[in-house]
Amino acid sequence: MRHLTPARHAIWAAALLTLAAGSAAKAEEGMWTFDNFPIARANQTLGTSIDQAWLDRVRLSSVKFGGCSAGIVSGEGLVMTNNHCVATCVANISTQAVNYAETGFTPRAREEEVKCPGGTAEVLTDISDVTERMQAAGAGLEGQAFTQARDAEAGRIEQEACGGAADKRCQVVTLYRGGQFKLYTYKKYSDVRLAFAPEDRAATFGGDLDNFSFPRFAIDAAFIRLYENDAPAQTPTHFKWNPAKPVEGTPVFVAGSPGATQRLLTMDQLMTVRDVVLPLDQLIASELRGRLIRYSEEGERQAFEAMDPIVGLENTYKRGLGRMRALTDPQFMDMKAAAEVDFMQRYAAANGDGPDPWGALEAVQPIQRELYPAMALLEGGTGVGTTPVAGGSQLFLWARTLVRGAQEREKASAERLPEYADSRLAGVQSGLFAERPVYPELEQVRLEWWLSKTREWLTVDNPDVRALLGRESPEGLSARLVEGTKLADPAVRRALWEGGLQAVQASDDPLIRYLLSIQEPTRAIRADWESRVQAPTDQASERLAAARFAAYGDSVYPDATGTLRLTYGKIEGSDVPGQRWGPFTTFDGLWDRATGAAPFDVAPKLLAAKDRIPADTVMNMTLSSDTIGGSSGSPVVNAEGEILGANFDSTVLTQRNAYGYDRNVNRSVIVTTGAVTTALRDVYGMERLVAELGGR
Amino acid sequence: MRHLTPARHAIWAAALLTLAAGSAAKAEEGMWTFDNFPIARANQTLGTSIDQAWLDRVRLSSVKFGGCSAGIVSGEGLVMTNNHCVATCVANISTQAVNYAETGFTPRAREEEVKCPGGTAEVLTDISDVTERMQAAGAGLEGQAFTQARDAEAGRIEQEACGGAADKRCQVVTLYRGGQFKLYTYKKYSDVRLAFAPEDRAATFGGDLDNFSFPRFAIDAAFIRLYENDAPAQTPTHFKWNPAKPVEGTPVFVAGSPGATQRLLTMDQLMTVRDVVLPLDQLIASELRGRLIRYSEEGERQAFEAMDPIVGLENTYKRGLGRMRALTDPQFMDMKAAAEVDFMQRYAAANGDGPDPWGALEAVQPIQRELYPAMALLEGGTGVGTTPVAGGSQLFLWARTLVRGAQEREKASAERLPEYADSRLAGVQSGLFAERPVYPELEQVRLEWWLSKTREWLTVDNPDVRALLGRESPEGLSARLVEGTKLADPAVRRALWEGGLQAVQASDDPLIRYLLSIQEPTRAIRADWESRVQAPTDQASERLAAARFAAYGDSVYPDATGTLRLTYGKIEGSDVPGQRWGPFTTFDGLWDRATGAAPFDVAPKLLAAKDRIPADTVMNMTLSSDTIGGSSGSPVVNAEGEILGANFDSTVLTQRNAYGYDRNVNRSVIVTTGAVTTALRDVYGMERLVAELGGR
């Protein structure tokens, strides 16, 4: 530790004065991979007796559905997830006139189930270790050569394992920030149909205000169905539906694909997130929110168009608020510092004057602080932020895929940007060809916001900004691009994709021409980021990972990376300041909380069914299992492998889980199978699904 | 220093490892009061020979105009300030059809000069010390009793000194955060007329993007005229107009009323600003900005209505960004910590085991962090933040003044909320009775945003939020209040004010009724804040101020408080990363920078005069004088007492000046008298003003 700076010294000094805490996982902590789940510890903590066969069944019953999780609940491909996980699907199959978000989607027969545009679902069938190949690929390299060699090797591994199989997907997963690499093989379903969604308000009662909070009264559940060869998939391995009233203290397991945690970051890295990443992301998201809210108030059409985008944006934004709160909480940061000091001390004892990975990461921070705005705004893919490139404009993203896809496919797979490697083209095409509605005025709002914020944050005289805008204004350029483009038509997109670089270069579509014109600056910022931020970060993180294994053995788990994990805990309420409640809410509570004014208005069909719903039916409950965003829809399973509900949320306080586990405040919020059963049977006339679930 | 916590220790440890820097003012540092200006040091630093008579003349030629500064430039009451300081006046006297922001306001004869609604201007005529009286008033008291006793004493002092004189204002000014109290007596002008404003775009070329930056090309200047008895005021003491080309290195002085600095805050207090105050203020301001931008795009009427509010909001927001950047800059914070350690060491050497004012302030921080959102959103007046109560809704603020004014005037002056003490009622009435246009739809946008953000930040189940909204939604309540109220009519406001509590209580105006209904919670949060945050902060700050005098003598200056100060420096460019330029821009540069697309479109009349304007005329320049927001419009004076320009801005990097002086980055941005002269003569046909200024 020769290289301690004043700032690092300060962290040490602070941490040494508090109770030093180790980095080993505590009981109920951890989002564990299925090939390293602490079976014995979990059984000991919970008093259960699960085994490897149990783990295998749970894994094969668990589904990754876009950015969400889900669980198979019948032998005929029926899958439960959250309503908010199908909200975009519902929006895509709705029109202003026939709006399933308002009415619910309740097909009376299986044949009326409707395909979700671009929807895919995956079941994790195999895990194998590819650490040696991946580490060898980058050995001796620096900068962008290092990241490119790694990316190319991952593409090769994936392609070798999955080839062109349409019903499989292979993914090299980076664990422990480079400490391990695993090849995950999925059974892939490209035909996913919506089988049931409640009225949106039944799932979002309380709206953004009740989001990330408890007590909660939301039937945030929906069903999709997996199809193969135009028929329901056969899924003999699935969770048994258990709609019985839940019992406080019951041991539970949650299987899902939590999105991303940053628990293994050093204090220096966390301070970059606190000082640069979150402020940029949150501040500009807040302005977009304001623009969209006002847009949605301009008329019924605008309200319809903006509903799903606003909900998604508000969810990300509120999660960010919870994260800001964590990183500005002196006690939480002291806890993180204490854990880092414990690790540093163990490392120093074992390595003496060896290389200093903390110092290497500290040296990256000024560069990351400098480059983050340009990378986040112009390119995306920073791995730490949430700012959507082009404001999430669908047209822009399609155009980028077309232009880059054409340019990259001219090269050998290993030479391409990794997202266009052969092993990933199927996924790219599936997104590109999906038949999704496009709302031009909304697209223009997004693009205008993005151009305006990029100009503001990078400053008007920045050469990249000049390349982006030329002599046009954000208002004028965004209007010109959206008015002129034909990319809303899937046939046009397909023709350009299939026509390759020649077709793209010959296109006079203004959005294609625009994307062609900005490739140089956007690719340059990405190269800069990869070489000066990503590569040195990856290399130092890999050394830290090895050191962590040496210090703590396999009692550590990897950061979440959007891949399947298993967590465990109990059905339990909460008793900390700002978060005091028992574990259950009932329909009684819903009727009490309703004011009639949005978002506290009960959905009409739900309200109409009030007399048929047993008032003491548990709607939502909380668990102590370790959770983070992306776990949405995760099946909650008891020790017998029965499904008790679907994870749909956590609390604002729980957002600190992104950076460090705190059992006191960590709570998942679950919609129960009991509430879903009564909704299907007593509200929405979906007895056919109740029967399929086992009829109880 | 027995009470050092881990966090404090960490600051010490960090600071001790850097070069410890003292807290005494460095050359060119300081916003000095006119009764403690370091004449000798300034003369030594600049090579000038100013004296007390010079100071007196400058003080009597300097004007406070609302939240801005200004300088008298003729014997007949002509005053130069910034165009952005008269922007609200211009908006108030404009209509969509006759919009002076578009055309400029160029009265051909003095009789056509138009009164600014509610505009007042003040000249500081006398300063006397009232420290003993003020400190005695609070002696032995704690909590709200302490703040109330102080407030009451200030009101008594002001009333005794100014009585009911209509042309005077008396103000007890708190300096050094309670180390000194001074009575400032002003000559007050209640009839202020607009004498000239350029086209808005001439003053705001580059808009928000070029705001807080340099090189700059903005004729951000305007003229008002002081009137007495319906005739131009006689002002024999005034600055001599000097439109000569400015020379790099010239010593200059800037006299103005900088708004507020927080340089004397402890590190613990600064971290509260960083972690709680700035994030709340900035995040919600960003959403309001988004709502207003979209609103302004809905039509020409909306664009007209929202223009002035957006400019003001963006200015505050961008300043906040600069402040966030300062408080998250590790080097800057190390510098602040080093200064604190130096002070602590001196304090410990002198006081041994005496009381620990740092510890007292540290103990306040958790409470301030907890109470800030409620205080900022429900009541305002936190002294640290910028969030406007009720979104700055003019109707709401009038209604609050009417309701509280009526309630408070039932009590003896010393018992009232201090803003309704007898000595302040004249100012209250002048604002209340001003004839200002009201735009109902815009008012509704502001109120809806405010209600919505208050509910979000305080949470929906907070009792205060329930009191604020009842069972209504922000959308519904804001619409109902704005549609129903008659307070846009000045006669209605006057009748209610003059009718007193009886009239207010009998009113069926929905906004009056609403304000009556929320008095209990809003007054309660204010009482809570005063007793648990303000009082202990004031008491500890007073002890720190005494300690600072003991440690550094009179070489320290007080934080800025919106009262008249004098700073000094030189005409100088900048040479630090991100801020490298010479001190001058010319009209040549303007023509070069223009793209034709807003906000880089040259104002039409200015463009039409291109051939008449000498291209090498200096438009803007930068100074090294110590600056902060509120200095806008400050006269820039040379050692001969001639005016060379008006301060109108600084840079984003300079915003750290709020918390600590850094000569390297500190730069004021000035519009020159030369540019103003050519604009008056060559663009706007205002030869009569050029003649009045001396005819050069």
Biggest beta sheet attributes of chain A: 10 strands, antiparallel
Question: Terminal Cα separation of chain A, in Å?
Answer: 63 Å
**What is the count of helical runs of chain A?**
25
Estimate the global geometry of chain A from the Cα principal axes. globular
Strand content of chain A: 5-15%
Largest interface: A-B, 56 and 56 residues
The helix content of chain A, as a percent range, equals 40-55%
Low-confidence stretches of chain A: 1-9, 17-21
What is the C-alpha radius of gyration of chain A, as a whole number of Å?
Answer: 25 Å
Oligomer: homodimer
Q: Tell me the structural class of chain A.
A: alpha+beta
Overall pLDDT confidence of chain A: 93
Q: Find the count of extended strands of chain A (DSSP E, 2+ residues).
A: 20
How is this structure best described in words?
Two copies of one chain form a homodimer. The first copy, chain A, has 696 residues and is of the alpha+beta class. Chain A is built from 25 helices and 20 strands. Chain A is globular, with a radius of gyration of 25 Å. Mean pLDDT of chain A is 93; it is low at 1-9 and 17-21. At the A-B interface, helix 1, helix 9, helix 10 and helix 16 of A face helix 1, helix 9, helix 10 and helix 16 of B.
Which SSEs are present, and which pair or pack?
Two copies of one chain form a homodimer.
Chain A: H1 6-17, H2 39-46, H3 52-61, E1 62-65, E2 68-72, E3 78-81, H4 87-93, H5 100-103, E4 114-115, E5 121-129, H6 131-138, H7 143-162, E6 168-175, E7 180-189, E8 191-196, H8 200-203, H9 207-210, E9 222-228, E10 231-232, E11 240-241, E12 251-256, H10 267-296, H11 300-327, H12 330-351, H13 357-379, H14 394-409, H15 425-433, H16 440-458, H17 463-469, H18 474-484, H19 490-506, H20 510-517, H21 519-552, E13 565-570, E14 574-576, E15 579-581, E16 584-586, H22 587-593, H23 604-608, E17 618-623, E18 635-637, E19 642-650, E20 668-672, H24 673-683, H25 687-692
Parallel strand pairs in A: 11-19
Antiparallel strand pairs in A: 1-2, 1-5, 2-3, 3-9, 4-8, 5-7, 6-7, 8-9, 9-10, 12-13, 12-18, 14-15, 16-17, 17-20, 18-19, 19-20
Helix pairs in contact in A: 1-12, 6-7, 7-21, 10-11, 10-13, 10-16, 13-16, 13-21, 14-19, 14-20, 16-17, 16-18
